[in-house]
Write a structure and sequence with these properties.
- Two copies of one chain form a homodimer.
- Chain A has three domains: about 5-175, Thiamin diphosphate (ThDP)-binding fold, Pyr/PP domains (Rossmann fold, 3-Layer(aba) Sandwich); about 205-365 and about 555-570, 3-Layer(aba) Sandwich (Rossmann fold), CATH 3.40.50.1220; about 375-540, 3-Layer(aba) Sandwich (Rossmann fold).
- The first copy, chain A, contains 21 helices and 18 strands.
- Chain A has helices at about 5-20, 35-45, 55-70, 85, 90-95, 145-165, 205-215, 235-245, 270, 295-305, 335-340, 350-365, 375-385, 395-405, 425-435, 445-450, 460, 490-495, 505-510, 520-530, 545-570; strands at about 25, 50-55, 75-80, 100-110, 135, 170-175, 220-225, 250, 265, 285-290, 310, 325-330, 390, 410-415, 440-445, 465-475, 515, 535-540.
- A six-stranded parallel β-sheet of chain A has the order 2-1-3-4-6-5, with helices on both faces. In chain A, strands 9-8-7-10-11-12 form a six-stranded parallel β-sheet. A six-stranded parallel β-sheet of chain A has the order 14-13-15-16-18-17, with helices on both faces.
- In chain A, helix 14 links the parallel strand 13 (about 390) and strand 14.
- The first copy, chain A, is globular and about 85 Å long.
- Chains A and B meet through helix 2, helix 4, helix 5, helix 16 and helix 17 of A and helix 2, helix 4, helix 5, helix 16 and helix 17 of B.
- Chains A, B: It is an enzyme of class 2 (transferase).
C-alpha cells in the first residue's frame, strides 16, 4: 500500500533540500523515516545525492560533521523517531561550536503518538535546545498547494539559515503517519521556487581603515592565526604579513602550515609560557584571525599582554576567553587583508629577524626529535603530501601543534576543536575521507578516543573508504599524566589512566583493516610511503610514563634553544 | 597543590549523595570532574559507594540505567565538561520515559570559560531540556556555612525529587575552577542534616471503592498487566485475579511470568489481531496495570474495544495511546488489589475456562516450536532459573512476548521499553548484571543492537561481570522484513536490511569473552545449562528471509489452534 499525498509531500522536501545544494546525506535506518529514506535513494539513483548509511546515529552525526568540515557545504542527517535522534546530540553541539551547517532531519511519530505512552516516541520538540540555530516543526504530510509551498519555502529557508553567518546546525522535525510507503514512480524534474540570497560582505569604512592603518603600520605586529575552515579563508594573511614583516603564530588548524613560509611560527608554546623574556621580539599589537587556537599557553600569554589585541571576527561572536580583545573587526580576513595591504609599512627589520631566528632554531630541534609520540607529527609533516589529515583531541592535537612543521605538502589538517571531545573522532575522520577528493587520508588518534568511536570504523568497511589510522597506543589517557592528579598515585590508574588493554590488531581484523605495528621511526616512515588503498591501521605502541618524561625533557631542551637565540640577539644589538 | 575550600564543598555534595542512599556510581574519566572522582573513590574506600568507570559516556548512561532498573534505587552518573555530557542524552530520555531515578552530575567550567570561546566547554544549562524532572545549577565551590548548607539541602532535595512519584532523571551541573586537586585527607563521618520524606500513599475512598466493586464484581474482567518494576509491584494482582477468575494478559515485562500460574495468558497477539472472534471469551471490562504493553496488537484491540477500560495509574500520566481509558485509578496496584480482594465475586466459570483452554493449547504449540529464532525464548523459559534476563528491543522482545512461557524459574525480565531504542542495550544488560545479585545474567539481542553498543562490552571485561549474551545473528535488521518496505526490493538491503557482516567470534576475542556458536536447539540448551562465570557470547546464526517465513507459518498455525479451541467451545455451549 502506498500513500500518494505522502509521496508528493516528502518529494517536495527532498526537492527543497536539493535546491539548497545539499549533496551528502547520511541515513540511519529505522521505520518512521521509511518514506524519506526510500525517496532519497530513489532520487540518488538520478545522481541527486550521495547516500551513506550508518547504523549508529552517534557515529553518523560525526561522519556528517566530518564531511561538512571538508566540503564547507551543508550535510543532511536523517533518522527515525526516538532516542536515535538523541544520539546526534554530541555532533550537533560540536557543529554549533565550530559553525558547521549540519542539517538534522528527524522523523517523528504524529502528535497522537507522542507523550502518551506510545513506543518509539520521545518529545522531539526543541530536542537540541539552544544548540541549534533553528528548530522547525514541519506539518503532517498533505498534498494541498498551500502546504507544499510552505514546506518548500521553510525547508529552504532553514538550510539557508544554517549557512548564513554565523553558520551552524539546524533541526527539522518531520511527523509522519502510517502508512509509510511512498510511491516509487519515476522522479520528476524538481521545480520548487528556489530561494537564494546573493552574497553580501561587510567592509571597513574609509575612516575605520585609516584609524586601523595607523595602529598597525610600521608596528611590531604579531599575527595570531587560529583554526580556519580552509586555506582560502586566511589566504590574504600571508601577503599582509610579508608586507608588514609580521610573524604569524600559525595554529596547526589555520591551514597556513600548508606552505613552508618563513614568517610562520610554530614554537609558540615554548616562547609564551612565561619562562622566556621575549625582549626585542615582544610585539606591540596582536592581530587575531580564526577561532580559538589550540595552544592554551598563547591564550594565557594574551591575558598578560599589555599591548593592543585586535580580533578579526566575522561571526561577531567575541569568543575570546582570554578577555584581551579591545578592537573587534567584523569583516572577513580576506576583505581586511586586501584593504590593509596597500596601506601598511613594515615593522623594524630586527623584530622579524629575531622571530625567524627563533623559529629556525626551533624547527632544527624538532626535526631531530626521537621521542616515540612526539616524533609522529614530525614524520607526518615530512612524509605526507596532498593529504587530508584528521587529528584527535587530547594529546595528538597538542603534539601536532608543537611538532608538525610547515611544509609545501599541501596537507589539510582538521580537528573537532569546538568542544574538544574525544567522542566521534573516528567518524569525523572517515566523513572527511569520504569527500576529501584524495585517497591520502590520515587520522592520528590515541587509544581511548579510538575506542570511544570504534563503531565509526564500520563506515570504512561499508563504504570502502581509503584512510590510514595511526593509533598511538599508550593504553589509557596519556594527557592526565601531565596534570596534578598524577600525584594521587592510588587513584590515578582506575580514574584517569583507565587502561582498556585494547587489542588493536583484533579491532583491525574485525573491520577488515590492514594492520601494521610501528615500533621505530623507520617503520612509520615506510608505512607512510604507501598511499592508502582501503582501511589501514598503524599501531604505535607507547608508554605513558616514558612519554611524560620525554615531553618534559623536550620542553626543557627547546626552552634552552630559544633562550640561546634570544641571548645571542640581546648581546648583539647591532645585528 | 590542593584546594581546601574545594574539598569541603565537594565532600559536602558527596555526603548529601550518600545521605540519600545512592550506592552505585558510574564515572567517566575527564579532567574537570577530577575533585569529584577523586573524593568519591576516597570515600568508596570506606565502603560508601560502589564505583564503576566507563570511558564511553553513552554506554555509561545505559549501564547506570540498567543498575537502577534492577535495584530500584537511584544511580549516579558523573562526567567532565563538554560533549561527554551530551552522550548521556539517550539514556536520560529512556530513564524519563520509564521513570528511572538517574542522577546525572555533570561537571562544568566556570561561567568565565563557557560560551566565550574556551575549549571543552559547551552550554550545559538545561542540557537535557524537558527530559529531566529537575535541572539544578550548583554554585561555584565555597566553604562558607550558607553555601554548604544550601548545597547539601539542594542536592538531597533533587535526589529525593528523582525518587518521588512519578520518578525520573534529574540533572545537577557543577561548575569548578582550577586548581582541581582536592585534599585527600581521612574522610570524616558524614554529618549533613539528612532530609527524608516518610512514605505516603493514596487510597480509594469508600464510595469510590464501592462504585468500582460494582463495575467489576461478577463481571468478565480481563486484566492487562503491562511492564512493571519488580515482582512486588504487581504482587496483589494474582490474588485478585484468582478471586475473580479473571485471566491476565501477562506482558513479558510484567514480572508475572515468574510464576506458572494458570490464569496467565501469553497468546494475546494471536487472539487480538482481529482475525479471531472471541465469542464467550470476550471481556466486559479491561483492568490495566503497569506501563504500555509490548504487544501492539493488544493496543490496537483496545482501540476497538467497546467495554469499559480502567487504568491503574499511580504516576497520574494517563499514558494510554489507545485512548481507550475511561477510568483512571491513581493508586498503586498493591493498594487497589488489597482493597478489592474481599469485595469482588467471580466471573461466570465458562469465561475463565475458555481462556484457560486457549492458553493451554497455545503453550502446547509453543513448546513444539522448531523455528530458529522463535524457539530461543522457549528454550530460555524452559532452561533458565533464578536469572536476570535483559531483552533487546526490536525482534527479541517481540519473540519473548510471544514465546517465553510462564514458569516457576523466578526469572526477572528487563527491557528498555520507554523509547524502545536499540541503543545502549548491551550496557543496560551489563548494568543489570553488576547488581542483580546472581551470576545467572542473560542478554538476548540481535546483531544490529549488539553492534550499536559494542563498546558497552568493555565494562564486562573491566569489572569481571558474569553474563551470557545470546546474539541472534541474521546479519541485519530482521524486523524490517515484516514491514511494507520489504516490497521495495531494490532499496531494501542498503536502507533497511543493512547487513554489517559482523564477525561475532572476533568481537568475543576483542573483549576476552568465551565464544560459542549454537546452530541447533540442543546446542543452545546445553550452553544454557552452564552458569555464567564471566562474559560468554553465544551466536545463534539465522537467516532473515527464512525467519520471516517461519514467523508467518507459526502465526498461521497458532491462529488455527486458537480457532479450533474456540470452535470447540462454541459448538459445546454446555461445557
Amino acid at each position: 500500500m502506498t500513500n500518494e499525498g505522502l509521496t508528493t509531500y516528502v518529494q517536495t522536501i527532498i526537492d527543497a533540500i536539493a535546491a539548497q545544494g545539499v549533496k551528502q546525506i547520511v541515513i540511519s535506518p529505522g521505520s518512521r523515516s521509511t518514506p524519506v529514506a526510500l525517496l532519497l535513494m530513489h532520487n540518488a539513483g538520478h545522481d541527486q545525492f550521495s547516500l551513506y548509511v550508518d547504523v549508529d546515529e552517534r557515529s553518523a552525526g560525526f561522519f556528517a560533521l566530518g564531511m561538512t568540515k571538508t566540503t564547507h557545504e551543508p550535510t543532511l542527517l536523517i533518522c527515525t523517531s526516538g532516542t536515535a535522534a538523541a544520539n546526534y546530540y554530541p555532533a550537533v553541539i560540536e557543529a554549533q561550536l565550530t559553525h558547521q551547517p549540519l542539517i538534522v532531519l528527524t522523523t517523528d511519530r504524529p502528535a497522537e503518538l507522542t507523550n502518551i505512552g506510545a513506543p518509539q516516541a520521545i518529545d522531539q520538540d526543541q530536542l537540541y535546545g539552544n544548540h541549534v540555530k533553528t528548530f522547525v516543526q514541519l506539518p503532517l504530510p498533505a498534498a494541498d498547494d498551500t502546504t507544499l509551498r510552505y514546506v518548500s519555502f521553510n525547508v529552504q529557508r532553514t538550510i539557508m539559515a544554517a549557512q548564513a553567518t554565523a553558520r551552524g546546525p539546524v533541526h527539522l522535525n518531520l511527523p509522519l503517519r502510517k502508512p509509510l510507503m511512498p510511491d516509487l514512480a519515476p522522479v520528476n524534474e524538481p521545480h520548487p521556487k528556489t530561494l537564494t540570497a546573493p552574497v553580501t560582505q561587510a567592509v571597513l569604512t574609509a575612516a575605520a581603515l585609516s584609524q586601523l592603518t595607523a595602529r598597525l603600520s610600521g608596528k611590531r605586529v604579531l599575527i595570531l592565526a587560529g583554526p580556519a575552515e580552509s586555506k582560502d579563508e586566511l589566504a590574504g594573511v600571508l601577503a599582509l604579513a610579508h608586507k608588514g614583516r609580521w610573524p604569524i603564530l600559525a595554529d596547526p588548524l589555520s591551514q597556513l602550515r600548508q606552505t613552508d613560509d618563513d614568517l610562520l611560527i610554530t614554537g609558540s608554546d615554548i616562547l609564551f609560557d612565561g619562562a622566556i623574556t621575549l625582549g626585542d621580539a615582544q610585539p606591540d599589537v596582536v592581530l587575531r584571525f580564526g577561532a580559538t587556537p589550540v595552544s592554551a599557553t598563547v591564550i594565557q600569554w594574551l591575558q598578560t599582554f599589555t599591548g593592543q589585541v585586535i580580533l578579526v571576527d566575522p561571526n561577531q561572536a567575541l569568543a575570546d576567553h582570554s578577555l584581551s580583545t579591545q578592537i573587534q573587526l567584523t569583516v572577513t580576513p580576506a576583505i581586511l587583508c586586501q584593504a590593509l595591504l596597500p596601506q601598511v609599512l613594515p615593522a623594524p627589520a630586527r623584530y622579524c629577524q629575531i622571530w625567524q631566528a627563533l623559529e629556525a632554531a626551533y624547527r632544527q630541534s624538532v626535526r631531530a626529535i626521537q621521542a616515540t609520540e612526539a616524533r609522529i607529527p614530525v614524520i607526518m609533516s615530512n612524509k605526507l603530501q596532498d593529504s587530508a589529515i584528521f587529528v584527535s583531541n587530547s594529546m595528538p592535537i597538542r603534539d601536532v601543534d608543537h611538532f608538525y612543521l610547515p611544509n609545501n605538502g599541501h596537507n589539510r589538517i582538521y580537528c573537532n576543536r569546538g568542544a574538544n571531545g574525544i567522542d566521534g573522532v573516528v567518524s569525523s575522520a572517515l566523513g572527511m575521507a569520504a569527500v576529501s577528493g584524495t585517497p591520502n587520508n590520515y587520522l592520528l588518534i590515541g587509544d581511548l578516543a579510538f575506542f570511544h568511536d570504534m563503531n565509526g570504523l564500520m563506515m570504512a568497511k561499508r563504504h570502502a573508504l581509503k584512510v590510514t589510522i595511526i593509533v598511538v597506543n599508550n593504553n589509557g589517557g596519556g594527557i592526565f599524566s601531565f596534570l596534578p592528579q598524577a600525584a594521587a598515585k592510588d587513584y590515578f590508574e582506575p580514574l584517569f589512566g583507565t587502561p582498556q588493554d585494547l587489542d588493536v590488531a583484533t579491532v583491525s581484523k574485525l573491520y577488515g583493516a590492514q594492520y601494521e605495528r610501528a615500533t621505530t621511526a623507520e617503520d612509520l616512515q615506510s608505512y607512510l610511503n604507501e598511499t592508502p588503498t582501503g582501511l589501514r591501521i598503524i599501531e604505535v605502541p607507547s608508554d605513558r610514563e616514558e612519554n611524560t618524561q620525554q615531553h618534559r625533557q623536550l620542553s626543557d631542551a627547546l626552552h634552552k634553544v630559544m633562550e640561546d637565540v634570544l641571548e645571542n640577539y640581546n648581546t648583539n644589538k647591532s645585528n
